[in-house]
Queue: 3 jobs
Job 1
Amino acid sequence: MLWKEIHHKLLNDVRAGHYSAGEKIPTEAELARRFNVNRHTVRRALSLLRDEGFVFSKRGAGVFVTGKNATYRIGKRTRFSQNISSDGVPSRQVTSVETRHATYLEAGKLALKTSDMVHVAEGLGYLENTPIMHSVSQFPAGRCDGILTYLQTNPSKTDAFAALGIADYLRKETEVTAVTATAMMANMLSCAVGAPLLRVNSVNILVDGTPIEYGTTHFIGDRMVLSVHNE
Amino acid sequence: MLWKEIHHKLLNDVRAGHYSAGEKIPTEAELARRFNVNRHTVRRALSLLRDEGFVFSKRGAGVFVTGKNATYRIGKRTRFSQNISSDGVPSRQVTSVETRHATYLEAGKLALKTSDMVHVAEGLGYLENTPIMHSVSQFPAGRCDGILTYLQTNPSKTDAFAALGIADYLRKETEVTAVTATAMMANMLSCAVGAPLLRVNSVNILVDGTPIEYGTTHFIGDRMVLSVHNE
DNA sequence: ATCTATAATTTGTCTAGTTGTATATTGATG
DNA sequence: CATCAATATACAACTAGACAAATTATAGAT
């Protein structure tokens, strides 16, 4: 079986670190030329590598090497950058911001009326240059004005809150469910459509109980473990 | 299909009122970043939204929502249509003025000779920041001298007439037809070429029967209902 | 201040390249 | 002959990049 040899060779290359995390490996056509086989034979080898979690592919772009796994601790004070425990360095990036009216759900979670405005920030979290989470956060206007402009330059929510004079905040509630990735979510998280995701809905509050953030985060299921703490 | 999900999400955002009528939605590049796709994939989603009539785009400027989603708010539209028989629209703006010889048609409508001059004012009317009508008005020189300079600072015709000493005037005749949008009209009204328009020709007169205005107005068909009252 | 020339944005269009999917064919093996 | 691996071919969906055309923002000059 030709494709198994190719799989073995590619796996060795990845493990040997010839391609670092997040890096693009040669195209299927190129690999087919190199191994002197048909493109579909290469695809079969890549398919196994994909299932094993070593690489992920983006239609139209190429095949990329997957990063490492991590665990995410959820407690009373959860901060993304401090709570990811792994070998790699986590980073995050804000992909879009907007200000709009609150939906019914958001209004309820943030103690607002639907006529009130919310600031919305959407972003991705990375580990080893590969996406590991996607988050949408709603902040109540009035209590958090100016947070979006801050987040655009520095994606750290802790820093942003600090800049607004909020030195400390607490996790009030955390709801965790499991969902499967839609095409869009799969694309954003560079995982397969239908892959299991962890969906975390959370509310952060001030020490006096005033809600200041309602967020929904999706983690890639098989790259992330949530550990919940009740101290 | 990624672009279909993006289309669905954008449509939801528009429907939910996250972007209000006439407002600019994020640029294609921004949306591409947010959904983590190529700009062309966003364009395909926007293309469907355009075809469905929810947004329109202006090269070099951006993509804007049409306000079609807000048409179920009959209140504004009703008030709007009530005002058609009298003076004007909630927000209007004079785009150009000129003084020239009367055409044969204008001369007939305004009881002039073709050697007489007419003052011409062209303008746009807006509803919720979206253009909804285009009007051209001809005023007979001699009876309405100085009206153009006034209209340029204040687009209200009632005020302009009042400034000329005309406290009251009546609608003599109103003709309504349906036409399709030419390229020029489509551009001014931010609608598609070939879109259905309502064309209203009207003549306003003094209480003694002297005509003081002949006008042609085009309304966007699917955003406007004319209600005709015979009191 | 106001107008003007320049630069920066933003949409429209085009070409090329890459992965995903479906179907059909070849060739060796039992 | 039936089966399975590999090949061959074609198309769809998406990415990547470049450039043109229209608009908007910016800086400079008068």
Job 2
Amino acid sequence: MKATVPITVASLKVACSQCNLVELCLPFGMSESEIDRLDELVGARRKIKRQQHLYRAGDPFEAIYAIRAGSFKTDVLLEDGREQVTGFQMTGEMLGLDGISTEAHSCNAIALEDSEVCVIAYSKLEELSRVVEGLQLQFHKVMSREIVRDHGVMTLLGSMRAEERLAAFLLNMSQRFTARGFSPAEFHLRMTREEIGSYLGLKLETVSRAFSKFQDEGLIAVQQKHIRILDIVGLKRLIQPPSPRP
Amino acid sequence: MKATVPITVASLKVACSQCNLVELCLPFGMSESEIDRLDELVGARRKIKRQQHLYRAGDPFEAIYAIRAGSFKTDVLLEDGREQVTGFQMTGEMLGLDGISTEAHSCNAIALEDSEVCVIAYSKLEELSRVVEGLQLQFHKVMSREIVRDHGVMTLLGSMRAEERLAAFLLNMSQRFTARGFSPAEFHLRMTREEIGSYLGLKLETVSRAFSKFQDEGLIAVQQKHIRILDIVGLKRLIQPPSPRP
DNA sequence: ATGGACCGTTGATCCACGTCAACCACGAAA
DNA sequence: TTTCGTGGTTGACGTGGATCAACGGTCCAT
């Protein structure tokens, strides 16, 4: 009976060094001894049910979050009710970085499915990253990567057509699922057509039509949220038309 | 004769504590004693002539830059020649943060006029921000602010119409000029219509037409790159239509 | 199993913005 | 001065994606 106790304790322990997401998450690139020192960083885990907010725009900023399980969207709401989805986040990715600048969150983070996050008190992160060099560098890289990613989205929104946008989105999802050990060619989207549309600057009808068109052309097989990519090369070709400018 | 020497030396000295941009730049919010310690941070200044690159996509990342005088645009070039301007930067703002993540720059930074930047070796910044707490916090805030700004642009590109975008752009410029001690209502744009269009996800003709429309409506007076804002409230009203949704 | 809410698909029509083209204003160089 | 090149404006026209509308599928809760 008692033999089960240590196992239970171990599985409940919150520790980066025990986590199978190290290679995707904040500890990526850090030495083992450095990662050991992170174990004090994650104060607690927090479960968020589907459709619930992890935080809302305006909430005071105290912590950033690493996704331990599940997935999220972040969005900003305009005064007139328009919504702009600014990103989709998967396991190992960080949430809440936007809050540092004003010490209040500037967007909403909403779980797309029942999820769990590691809560990283920002004050503790600052403190620890002063002594653990690898943590300092990795944290900066995580923020910088977010900036680069946002520039990619701006490019997509500013200069690509609807089908290019969706192709880029699918390839991005495929790549991220692959990095997490899932199939590059077959995956389940957790977000609705409307959320995809908002992210891509399109209406849901346009997203739906583009999905259908890709299916007609044999590029993918769609069944609701389940996607199978049949022709990766074809999708990539959509984004980079072969003949540049005359 | 020799009396002029110390003055010359002082004016050449590269020092945040002597700089009149402290309130806009990295040292913002830091104590005087902390700022004094920054003086070793800025290794050198660098002058960039109009249309020249400060760095290019792919360049190895070694430093970030604080704009001391002048202004820049950052852009990414797609393989087929399309350009997406990802931002315009003014004095006191930082350039190069995108390079941390991959240790190579991911966009181009091009001077819109003859400009000068302070070169901040990234290794030195890391080192110093481990001991100067205020620097660590401020640097994180600068990165976070960039993320928030990018989300704003994504919102603009993803869910606003042409005239809303241009109004938002003008109000943003006005606010930034104001913060630098210039008139909120009258300023000189350093970028072309095409660059504005690229930034806003519009063609230059659309930008031009929107300028003309605003002028016809008495919101602004345009003379080439010289802008006078005549009705700020009217511009703001354009972004937030008074009647939300029925 | 049944009703209902939500989500997705598809068609018909519309319009905001892109495209194409002509022309004009300004500054630099000759 | 004239010329040239770049940048800006404006008009006519075309189109990609939005809008409006109807319907079908799926997943719940009862």
Job 3
Amino acid sequence: MATAARRGRPRAEGTDDRILGAACDLLLARGYDGYSIDEVAQRAGVAKTTLYRRWPTKDHLIVAVVARIQDEVPVRDTGDIRRDLTAYLEAVAAGLTRMSRVGRPAGPDDRSAGLVAEIVAAAARRPDVGRAVRAVFARRNALPLALLESAQARGDLGPGARPDVIFDQLAGALYYRLLVTGEPVGGDYPARLVDQVLAGARAPGPEGKPS
Amino acid sequence: MATAARRGRPRAEGTDDRILGAACDLLLARGYDGYSIDEVAQRAGVAKTTLYRRWPTKDHLIVAVVARIQDEVPVRDTGDIRRDLTAYLEAVAAGLTRMSRVGRPAGPDDRSAGLVAEIVAAAARRPDVGRAVRAVFARRNALPLALLESAQARGDLGPGARPDVIFDQLAGALYYRLLVTGEPVGGDYPARLVDQVLAGARAPGPEGKPS
DNA sequence: ACCCTTTCGATACCGGCGTTGCGTAATTCA
DNA sequence: TGAATTACGCAACGCCGGTATCGAAAGGGT
């Protein structure tokens, strides 16, 4: 088991949870700004050194918080790849826009991506944080990727189509809008995106009906 | 004109350039870590207050630097949309991976996106930085978008295809890999991506030849 | 000439991140 | 029981981002 009775004084039970909970509360309450290590430690009733013994930097702690509050996006495989993908993307978009509003006054010009942008930047700064972030996303993307592979095995996708590239197109378009251009991803954007990814952009030749 | 002889003491000529140059040098030399406002001011031979009078935060200055060193990605419109898009994406991928190595020891596990991730996070933190970043990308994306619209006007794209969504698929997939999953975007990935975006992922029906 | 406005440099300051050192508590091993 | 080991809290520190204050300099308006 993980409780492999080590040598010295054992860590106080529930300390990790209290710290993560305090950090999560503070992030949700005041956003990335106004989220300080000192206050997290104070709220958790813990010395700052204790906190740093578990997560070496603020970035590590944030990634741990995000990995914890990451909501499971439901994936259904009904056999209708278009419908399943659309439903999945809509759920992801809803979750992302919700998380992007975290701790923000939600002004009319606010289209930021909040925590997601932070953990992406943290991943770019430190290699080990990068590994942790990639693990979070790998776990998160496993089900939709399996959905695509199942569709291909069923013959609903072209034999030359690569599920991972398809997923890049879908998720990439969503994240690109959220993180870079700041355009909205709601409304019928997921449906349009799925349609276009599945159907392709090239004009049909003389034979072969469109759509 | 921009030189609208204002009232008080004029700003020393070339100060902006010296600051931006020093910031750029420092970023290129030591990366985002080891890049401090104090040292930029010192290198530029300028007081810190002078620097803050021009760019209110470190993030603003970084965005200004990126906007300045942003290399123009060449876009050719030869009429072959597939070839032009592939060439464009390859150039973008090369530029991004180059910029992502900025100031880093380039270890084997380093797949980060460096400055791009930083400005994305900065854009998420402050609305005005977000506007500046979006302006940078809008300027950067204008030519390839025009390329897509020209192809559609020529009839090379389906009439229902939306150029902006196509661009989301292409650029999004690239940035998603760079920023989130950290997978490489070199090799034949741009070509594969363009092919799949243009052709679509759905299996062809009984009639209609593949590709 | 004289004021007004704006820039510039210098210094001090605050708060947050991350580190260090030290004394102490809890637990295992001999 | 005693030694080694690990966790914990406390206090202090250095570094950096950002702000405030002050005095001096460099221009324009009259």
